[in-house]
Amino acid sequence: MEWRDEGVVIGVRAHGETSAIAEIFTADHGRCLGMVRGGRSRQQRPVLQPGNLVMTTWRARLEEHLGTFQVEPLSLKAGFILAHPLRLAGMNTLMGLCQMLPEREPHPKLYQAAHVVLSAMEQDAVWPALLVRWELGLLDELGFGLDLSRCAATGQADELAYVSPRSGRAVSRAAGLAYHDRLFQLPAFLNGGEAGTARDVLEGFKLTGFFLERHVFGPRQVPMPAARDWLCEGLKEQQAA
Questions:
Q1: What Å distances lie between residue 76 and 3, 42, 66, CA to CA?
Q2: Tens-place pLDDT, residues 81-140
Q3: Number of domains into which the chain is organized
Q4: Which of 8, 140, 170, 205 has the fewest CB atoms within 10 Å distance of its CB?
Q5: Does one domain contain both 13 and 62?
């Protein structure tokens, strides 16, 4: 069997003395693993870095086999991201979350959204909010999407200001005011508003983090990516500056 697809490298581990096992989130084939012969060589190591966009050919005798990857570079984004701690934390958060996707299950919309986040990494006022939106998309793709379109109490679509931690549904300002200390803030940028401030983005990460922990990480008894905590701490420092 053989297929060819573009993808983002999301993880790599050594295999033997010279090879590597690459984990790649592909456009049409989802999250896939394969062995890269010579993957630890001087030529391949710069390509097999998380965050890099590659063209890959996967081959195996049977579909259920691990298979092998032949990897060609398309856009090596990892290099410029590594020099910026906050961007690195954002990229590692994205890569760690991609690893929670079921293996070999296509998620083309989520892949394209990940591509958008990585492409915006040079714009520090833009990519953190895009990453929050991507996390919402991940919840949706895994079947745990939040309903931010209408108020859970009144059904209205105006002045949505909160999200219920119980139902994952939006709540209007008027309906939620008396219970605001029990509800999550709904940043405007998640509901059609403009790109958020550092404070808005932190509220967004708080919201998505709660539901990711409840539905994705908690049931599997695995921790959230440590890079996500580093990212949030960095954003807090920006907010305080």
A1: 22, 15, 25
A2: 888 999 999 999 999 999 999 999 999 999 999 999 999 999 999 999 999 999 999 999
A3: 2
A4: 140
A5: yes
